[in-house]
């Protein structure tokens, strides 16, 4: 991260060191001086907001996050999420630029981290649920939303005559492409991909993807329009025990069971499976989730 001003870069490095050593107040002072030299540097502004929040100065941090957003409206650092957590007003979804940056950076270590540290098993849970609901035959067209590096594709391939996938992150899609199991892969937003697709699908899956979207109405609408009658929508979400959806400190949304049931009814789905399931851990602890298979009626 460089501001292209040597003095500012030096001050910035010093501020980071102070912050690492636990002196967020002093770090915030140095960052404020740094920004006098480079007022339009988005990453510097973001770092100041982070540092103020870390120092417990929530009301000072909020306008600085807002100033960052004015400099980088695409929000590649994820300020909207931080603001949402500080103001306790959940946004409808994570900003695309933030997710792209997050997963582009995560891609090289994604599978190892998920499988070994987080004990990730959403693809296997989805496959088992699909085998229960529809034990026989292959699906003619399967589409994998937020396919990532293709872990769900691996377990679904043998049940799919045609398998497509989409993901926001080009680096994640490269991982999926290297597996040579998808018929078509695209980089982009899942709702846009569904809305521009020519053919109908008989299975659409989203393994650990809807956790990055709070309000799922647009996803449900787009999926329902793209499914053949009787087609299946299979996904995992993180669960919370209240209504609607909430945003967690780890920047992932959790959804209530009632919310999924209400959306299913609104979008003409029959619920074939909707049950508690754990598809990953966080810091060694099981994360409560829901496993769903809905049938378009
Ligand atoms: C935790 S990973 C899961 C990847 C894969 N489904 C799997 O089971 O390994 C979440 C993925 O969702 C993607 N994603 C999040 N929001 C998206 C959106 N709106 N459209 C497309 N992909 C999205 C991210 O880029 C990331 O690769």
Task: Describe how the helices and strands are arranged.
Layout: H1 6-20, H2 24-37, H3 42-54, H4 58-71, H5 79-87, H6 96-117, H7 122-133, E1 142-145, H8 151-156, E2 163-167, H9 170-178, E3 184-187, H10 190-195, E4 201-206, H11 217-226, E5 227-240, E6 245-247, E7 253-256, H12 257-266, E8 269-277, E9 281-282, E10 285-286, E11 289-296
Parallel strand pairs: 1-2, 1-4, 2-3, 4-5, 5-7
Antiparallel strand pairs: 5-11, 6-7, 8-11, 9-10
The structure holds S-adenosylmethionine (SAM).
Residues 99, 103, 122-123, 146-148, 151-152, 166-169, 172, 189-190, 207-209, 212 line the site of S-adenosylmethionine (SAM).
Task: Describe the overall structure.
The chain has helices at residues 6-20, 24-37, 42-54, 58-71, 79-87, 96-117, 122-133, 151-156, 170-178, 190-195, 217-226, 257-266; strands at 142-145, 163-167, 184-187, 201-206, 227-240, 245-247, 253-256, 269-277, 281-282, 285-286, 289-296. Strands 1, 2, 3, 4, 5, 6, 7, 8 and 11 form a nine-stranded mixed sheet that branches. The protein has two domains: 6-89, Serine Threonine Protein Phosphatase 5, Tetratricopeptide repeat (Alpha Horseshoe), CATH 1.25.40; 100-296, 3-Layer(aba) Sandwich (Rossmann fold). Helix 1 packs antiparallel against helix 2 and helix 6 (96-117) crosses helix 9. A hairpin with a 2-residue loop joins strand 9 (281-282) and strand 10 (285-286). It is an alpha/beta fold and 297 residues long.
């Amino acid at each position: 991260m460089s501001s292209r001003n040597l003095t500012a870069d030096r001050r910035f490095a010093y501020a980071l060191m102070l912050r690492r050593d636990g002196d967020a107040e002093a770090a915030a002072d140095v960052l404020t001086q740094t920004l006098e030299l480079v007022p339009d540097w988005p990453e510097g502004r973001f770092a100041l907001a982070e540092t103020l929040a870390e120092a417990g100065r929530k009301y000072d941090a909020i306008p600085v996050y807002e100033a960052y957003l004015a400099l980088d409206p695409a929000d590649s650092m994820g300020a909207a999420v931080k603001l949402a957590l500080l103001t306790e007003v959940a946004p409808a979804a994570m900003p695309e630029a933030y997710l792209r940056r997050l997963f582009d950076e995560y891609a090289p270590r994604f599978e190892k981290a998920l499988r070994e540290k987080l004990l990730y098993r959403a693809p296997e849970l989805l496959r088992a649920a699909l085998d229960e609901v529809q034990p026989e035959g292959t699906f003619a067209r399967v589409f994998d939303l937020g396919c990532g590096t293709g872990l769900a594709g691996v377990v679904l391939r043998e049940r799919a005559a045609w398998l497509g996938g989409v993901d926001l992150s080009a680096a994640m899609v490269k991982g999926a492409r290297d597996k040579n199991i998808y018929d078509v892969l695209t980089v982009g937003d899942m709702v846009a991909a569904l809305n521009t697709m020519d053919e109908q699908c008989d299975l659409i899956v989203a393994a650990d993807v809807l956790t990055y979207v709070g309000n799922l109405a647009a996803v449900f609408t787009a999926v329902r329009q793209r499914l053949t009658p009787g087609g299946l929508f299979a996904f995992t979400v993180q669960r919370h025990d209240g209504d609607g959806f909430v945003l967690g400190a780890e920047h992932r949304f959790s959804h209530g069971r009632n919310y999924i049931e209400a959306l299913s009814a609104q979008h003409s789905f029959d619920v074939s499976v909707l049950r508690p399931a754990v598809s990953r851990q966080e810091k060694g602890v099981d994360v409560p989730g829901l496993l769903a298979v809905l049938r378009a009626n």
